[in-house]
Design goal:
alpha/beta; seven-stranded mixed β-sheet; globular
C-alpha cells in the first residue's frame, strides 16, 4: 500500500482501503501481530485471550537478562537517583555519568577506542549511515541486511548497491566494477541475520573490502551475547576486532533492554556524535536503560555459564527440529532459528495449534519474506530448560499433523 502510486485526490483514500484489507487479515489464523502480554517476565508469559502460561519462543531477550534481579535492581536504583527520563538529547541535558560509563564498557568489550549511544538499534544504523556516507561515496550491503541498514542507506546522500546474500563472489564483482567510480566506500554485513539466523563469511568479506580500500561496517545486533566465548559477537569469535571499522549493536537483544550503540575509533565516534541526526535530535536512553544495559553486559561478559547455557539450548532445539525434518544446518549456532513452512494456509493452522497449546512463536509471512518463504521465526533463549524445549518440539510435531504438513513434501 505504501509503496505504490495513488491517484486519489484525498491523501487518506489509501488508508481506508487498507483498513478493509486489515480487518480481513486479522481474522486469518496466521495473523499474530498484536498479541498482548499480561504481567509476566522470563521464558513464560501470560497472553490475553489464551491459556494462562505460554512458553516464549519468539523473544529477543536471548540471555533472559531483562528479568535478572541484578538488572532490575540497577534500573530501579538509577530511576530513584535520576528520575524516569534522560530529559534531553546527548548534546543537551541527556548525558549522565551512567551513559559515559556504559560507553566506556562497550568500547572496552569490543576493543575499540570509543562508543556512542543511540535510543534504538534502528536509530544507530540510520544515523551512522546518514552521518558517515556522503555524496560521492558508496555503500555495498548484503541483500538481506536489516531494514534499518537499508533505510540508513536511503537517508544517506551516498550511492548504494546490494550484493547477493553472503556471496563474496558477488561482492567482489560489484567492487571490481564500481569501486573506482566513488570516493569512500563502506561494505556492510551482519554478525547474525535477523530472519535466517545465519552468519556471514566475515573474514573473506573483510579481505575483499581491504583489497579495494573499503571500510567495513558490522551490525552485531543479533550476535553480541550469542557468539564468542564472552559474548563479544562475531568479531570475538573470529578475533577480527581490528579489521572491522565500525561495530553496531543494540541493547534490545542479549542486553535485555532498549537502545543501541556504535563502537569505533575516537575520530569516527566524535564525527557521529555531531553529525548523526538520530543521535543529535532525539532524546537519549533513560538512566535506567543505561544502568540496566551496563549491568547486563557485565553479567554475560563475566559469567560464561549464561552463554554456555544458551548454546546448549540452541543445540538441543536445532537437533530436535532436524529430527522432525526441518531443513536447518546442523552447525546452526545463533538464537534465531527459522523453521520454513512455505504454505501460508498450513502455517496458519500450525500457528493456531501452537498458541492453543501454550507456545508463543512468531509466524513470518509476506511481505517480511517472499511468498514461498513463510516460516516460524523461533528464538532460543538461555532461560529455557530441557523440558521446555522437549514440550515445544512435541507440540510442534502435533501441529504438523494437525496441518497435514511434512517438511519433505
Amino acid at each position: 500500500f505504501s509503496g505504490v502510486s495513488h491517484v486519489e485526490r484525498d491523501l487518506f483514500a489509501k488508508v481506508r482501503t487498507f483498513s478493509v484489507m486489515f480487518e480481513e487479515w486479522q481474522k486469518l489464523p496466521q495473523y499474530q501481530y498484536k498479541t498482548v502480554r499480561k504481567a509476566s517476565k522470563g521464558t513464560k508469559t501470560s497472553l490475553k485471550g489464551y491459556r494462562k502460561k505460554s512458553i516464549v519462543m519468539g523473544s529477543n531477550d536471548y540471555l533472559n537478562l531483562a528479568a535478572h534481579p541484578k538488572v532490575i535492581e540497577a534500573a530501579l536504583e538509577a530511576t530513584q537517583k535520576y528520575g524516569t527520563s534522560s530529559t534531553g538529547s546527548p548534546l543537551t541535558t541527556g548525558q549522565t555519568d551512567l551513559h559515559m560509563e556504559l560507553c566506556e564498557f562497550l568500547a572496552k568489550m569490543l576493543h575499540k577506542e570509543s562508543a556512542i549511544l543511540f535510543n534504538s538499534g534502528y536509530a544507530s544504523n540510520l544515523g551512522s549511515l546518514q552521518g558517515l556516507v556522503g555524496r560521492g561515496d558508496l555503500m555495498v550491503a548484503d541483500f538481506l541486511s536489516h531494514a534499518s541498514i537499508q533505510d540508513g542507506m536511503k537517508q544517506s546522500h551516498g550511492s548504494a548497491k546490494l550484493f547477493r546474500h553472503n556471496s563474496t563472489e558477488d561482492l567482489r564483482r560489484i567492487l571490481q566494477s564500481s569501486r573506482d567510480e566513488y570516493a569512500g566506500t563502506l561494505v556492510l554485513t551482519e554478525g547474525v541475520f535477523s530472519m535466517d539466523g545465519d552468519v556471514p563469511p566475515l573474514k573473506e568479506i573483510i579481505s575483499i573490502a581491504k583489497e579495494h580500500d573499503c571500510r567495513v561496517y558490522l551490525d552485531e545486533a543479533h550476535s553480541i551475547g550469542v557468539l564468542g566465548e564472552t559474548g563479544g559477537g562475531l568479531v570475538e569469535e573470529l578475533d577480527c576486532h581490528d579489521d572491522v571499522d565500525v561495530i553496531m549493536g543494540t541493547f534490545s537483544k542479549s542486553f535485555g533492554g532498549i537502545g543501541g550503540f556504535v563502537a569505533a575509533s575516537k575520530d569516527v565516534c566524535d564525527w557521529l556524535y555531531w553529525l548523526a541526526r538520530s543521535h543529535m535530535f532525539s532524546i537519549s536512553i533513560s538512566p535506567a536503560n543505561a544502568a540496566a544495559a551496563l549491568q547486563a553486559g557485565k553479567l554475560f561478559t563475566q559469567d560464561s555459564s549464561i552463554i554456555a547455557q544458551l548454546k546448549r539450548n540452541i543445540k538441543l532445539f536445532v537437533e530436535g527440529m532436524r529430527a522432525l525434518g526441518a531443513p536447518i544446518d546442523s552447525n546452526h549456532r545463533s538464537s534465531v532459528v527459522p523453521v520454513m513452512v512455505g504454505d501460508v494456509a498450513k502455517l496458519g493452522v500450525m500457528n493456531k495449534y501452537l498458541l492453543d497449546h501454550g507456545i508463543f512463536v512468531v509466524p513470518i509471512v509476506y511481505p517480511a519474506v517472499s511468498r514461498n518463504q513463510s516460516r516460524f521465526r523461533f528464538t532460543v533463549c538461555a532461560g529455557l530448560v530441557e523440558s521446555d524445549i522437549d514440550y515445544v518440539l512435541t507440540v510442534f510435531e502435533n501441529a504438523m499433523k494437525e496441518a497435514d504438513f511434512d517438511f519433505h513434501r
